[in-house]
Amino acid sequence: MTDYAASLGEDRIAYLEGLVDQARTAAAVFTQYTQEDVDRIVKPMVLAGMEQARHLATLAFEETKLGVLEDKAMKNMVATEFVYNYVKDKRTVGVMREFPERGLVEMAEPIGVIFSVTPITNPTATVLFKCIMAIKTRNAVIFGPHPLAWRCCFEAVRIMYEAAVKHGAPEGVFTCLESPTVPDNQYLMRHKDVRLVDATGGRGAVKAAYGSGKPALGVGPGNTPVYLEKTADLDMAVVDTITSKTFDNGTICASEQTVVIDDEVYDRVLEKFSALGAHICSAKETALLGRVLVDPETGMARPMAIGQKAIDIARAAGLAVKPDTKLLIAPIQGVGREHPLSVEKLFPVLAVYRAKSVDEALKVCVDVNRFGGLGHTAVVFSRNDEVIRKFGEVIDAGRVIVNSPGSIGALGGVYNDMVPTFSFGCGTGGGNSTTDNVNVYHYLNIKRVARRTQMPMWFRIPNQIYFNRNAVENLRQFPSRSTLIVTNPVLEQFGHVEVVRRNLPPQTVVHVLAIPEAEPEIGIVMLGLEALAANKADQIVALGGGSVIDAAKIMKLKYQSPQADLEELGAPFLDIRKRVAEYPTEKTNQLRLIAIPTTSGTGSEVTPFAVLFDKQRGRKVTLTDYSLSPDVAIVDPQFVMSMPKALTADTGIDCLVHALEAAVSVYGSPYTESHAMQAIRLAFRYLPIAYENPRDEEARSMMHNAACIAALAFSNASVGVNHALAHAFGARFGVAHGRANALMLPHVIAYNAAVPTKFMPSPHVRGYTAHKKYAQIADLLGLGGHTVAEKVDRLIAATEQLLDRLAVPRSIALLGIAEEDFARAVPELAQIAFDDPSWRTNPRMPLLNELADLFWSAYRGRGLAKAAGPSEQPTAAEGLVYANK
Amino acid sequence: MPISETCLNIDGARAAQSLQEALTALDTAGGEMVLDFSSVRRVDAGALRAMEKLAAAAGDKAVKVGLRGVNIDVYKALKLIKLASRFSFPA
Questions:
Q1: pLDDT in tens, A544-598
Q2: How far is Cα A160 from Cα A165, in angstroms, rounded to an integer?
Q3: ipTM surpasses 0.90
Q4: From the candidates B79, B81, B82, B83, which should be mutated to test the interface with A, based on the most A CB atoms within 10 A?
Q5: Are residues A678 and A734 part of one domain?
Q6: For chain B, what is the radius of gyration of the CA atoms?
Q7: Which of A131, A153, A176, A253 is catalytic?
């Protein structure tokens, strides 16, 4: 048994358990109530509280001997009427708010049993306020009042309880401790059936609440600084300050404690205070007050002064003041223990400080705020918006009250539009969990019912695509003063550059930059930029394979936006719409990019991708943005008629893989699928013909179109794990991209068609569909088969036959790579493939051991891939063993 | 040995009283008692107290008490007060 429980005794524990039991039952019953039920109860409770406001104020005043009876009655009214006005239309049961456009619904769940500590300074008002909140939110509350204010609280609870039960509230919904003690509080705060501790009170109660291990709302002391700036309405500021500081004799913890006054208006302000009933203390009187009112041991104000009248305090300190004195004003020269009156004073004694500048004033206000009142309340009087803004910035307070009284302003709903409360959250600065004015929402668990949403998708392609033989003639319609043709030396030799030059408008000045047909380095890009600048070019014609077109894309990017940081733009991302890197939108130079591909595979003429080789770091940087897409694509087969057979095969397979991966991508859409399917159909039909009969113009033309159409699909749906594997393997063993893709392809189809170990999270896809899409492709190709599995197997077989016709080696082993070399490389290859962004849209999320397994499958070779059912999947352990052999 | 079963309807308008009657009927019940809650829309504190007593008495007398037709709101209230585990909920 804990110390506090031991000190309670069996009878007291039985009493406390009885309170909890009642509250627990009430809370359970309450869960069945509707919004209409609780609203029917709240209103008569509020009326009962209003009716008894003066009666409860009298009880509180007589019991505590603190404050002002009339002000306490006013507080009881605010705690009922103003709080009701705020909560009456709030939905606190079931559906609270709906956001149909976001697919979100917020629903209210009651907390259950709340143990609520209430203070001596505002005893009945706090009870009334919390009772209304509890009923509105269907919670049961056990009140733990301050030991010196429990009788008035007990009566307040009784009034609220009777009104509530009379109108249908569950029995036992409110209870109140009689003759409460600190061990009572400790016992209840730690009780297993108490779900929330709501402590409004002094430091001890708040600290105990947070130390209970229960979720707690603990709101504690303040030390409110006021900045009275020289532009302020001085009359208003003085009256507001007196109103607030003398309200209930300063017992509200948000009341003003130190007023920092600009030097220019300091004397006038004090005169106004004096004229309205304040006594301005001399230095000697201030010192005397400090000694009498502040305990030098603790550095805190003595309890005996709390809520007392100014004249009584003056009398106790031996000060001679007029009998109608409302407020004692004590000039201080600094903040801290050596200036006793700079502490929180819950009585009508106000410190004032003369500030020589705004900076000094703000500094003193910060010091006051941090001297025991962090996170609570601060006040500023000013007509200068900049001063008000700066004050709000530098002061760490949950409430910054502007041109109004601190205490009544902080309560909310009277002088401003803040939420009415009798519990001020002080944030982490005050050791609290909130800076809010505590309200009904803190008495609820708010649940979010989130419907599946589908993000808007896109299908973005270049404005103009010209295709078929002599499409290059369309160059004439693009006026250009100066055009840079970026190409490679071989194409110059073939005469392709001359064809382009002939088809440009006659007035165009043409310059040629021949670059190597290899992934461009930054040096190549710089050469291009120099050429563009030297010739004041307004157009680039990129004539070449993927590398040349990629180089031209990056040249255009840097020429238009020299500030573009390629390193940053190449940063990895998961979703192009949410990525961190921002592509420049401001353009220094205007430039048109026309892409004319001379291979039928990459589709770079329409894609938003460009690969840059970072020679220094030995790695590729992939840039992705639709601003990189060429403005015009010219897909003219005359430029591919002379492609060598091996290049025809490798680039053609690249095209097929683009289409197959886009077809099953989790970013796929009806738009991309239609293009992917068409490209697959064209590739299966025409690639073998183009390979075997290179001069077959129809086959060449169709494959050229297929590459572009596949690119339109994967530009928007992206690719998949095949590309991730091929990138890693190709770079490590120096194998051409298309060939590396080909070696992986049948194995990847089988892998994607099987039941995944891990599904790829994607809101766009309903269920696992990759195997069905492969079956649709098989149907499109007329491969036959009855079941999905049969169709997938036939697609794999057809793919393998196609690769055989294209003389693609059947395995990695046949490339001459020794098994031991491959085994050494596989673990790292799997990691590199895993880091590759290509698979992020793959239908199946690859595990590292699965990637390793796929490499080994490709090493072993074709003819082994089959659409595996769940029972045929290798286990993770098998995969690892395999990867390591 | 066959187990006899007693079935009682709980009146939604006077659930606490009905449950009190069920408590009395425990003495004559066989091994099982089924209480039909189909007409009970909501339970109040009195009903919950009666159910607490019923559960305790049923335990003493080794009678299994099943609650049939309990709606989800009442079921949740029973869960919150940790009473649900002391009854069965036949379909």
A1: 999 999 999 999 999 999 999 998 998 888 788 788 889 998 898 999 999 999 9
A2: 9
A3: no
A4: B81
A5: yes
A6: 12
A7: A253
